[in-house]
Amino acid sequence: MMISAFRPAAAMLCCAALSFGLPAAAQAGDIAEKATLAETLLDRGYGGAALKAFDTSAAAFWTASPLQLRTVLFADAVDGFADYTPRGNSEFQPSDALRLYFEPVGFAYIEESDGFGAELAADLQIRTPGGLILATAEDFGRLEWQGRSKMREVHATIEFPLPDFKPGSYQLLLTLRDENSPKTTTVTLPFSVTE
Question: d(Cα 63, Cα 72) in Å, to the nearest integer?
Fold first, then answer.
């Protein structure tokens, strides 16, 4: 089993428990107003102020967003954020490892003495297309990010050996739980085992 979470500088972080405060949710109108202000400032030549207003709009969107995955796929290799080699197909041999790459969006942050942190818990389940559960790993791992600012370009990799399944079609369910808010998300990735 391998689980990793990376900062934009691609430094691997170890897992640790954090407690997060949950900011108030932004309203959709609030997001649009801040984005409009950014555009107006940019049109008038105030680049620095426009960037600050844009960042405020993006932060409001992030807070209001559900926990979701911008990208989630099987990968052959992962070298950093948006630096991965997608697997050519979702067919695996019984001795293969399953490697997931994903980019979470909308999780909560905690303010720390030297910046901000975030933590997600991951649950895995493998089932047949008909819904028969074959394997479950609740609280499979913890994914943690830390930085001096609220990073939005983060990714994670989860890798584990494929259980000894007979050839056929299967589904991998990945559930992420934000440890600092009530937000959760579940995605299903179909795959098959070949002879």
Answer: 21
What one-letter code names the amino acid at 184? T
Query: Please, which pLDDT band fits residue 15 given cuts at 50, 70 and 90?
Result: very low
Q: Which helix (H) or strand (E) holds 32?
A: helix 28-43
What tens digit of pLDDT does each residue of 113-166 get?
899 999 999 999 999 999 999 999 999 989 999 999 998 999 999 999 998 899
Residue 18 has pLDDT above 70, yes or no: no
Name residue, tokens 């960037």: 51
CATH number of the domain that residue 99 is part of: 2.60.40.2550
Residues 6+ apart with CB under 8 A from 168: 128, 192, 193
Cα–Cα dist 111/68, whole Å: 22
Share of the chain above pLDDT 70, in %: 86
CB atoms within 10 A of CB 138: 11
pTM, to two decimals: 0.80
**Quick check: helix, strand or coil at residue 140?**
strand
Burial of 76 (0-12, 13-18, 19+ CB in 10 A): exposed
Residue 139 lies in a domain: yes
What residue numbers bound the domain in which 51 lies? 28-62
46 and 79 inside one domain? no
Say yes or no: 81 and 121 in one domain.
yes
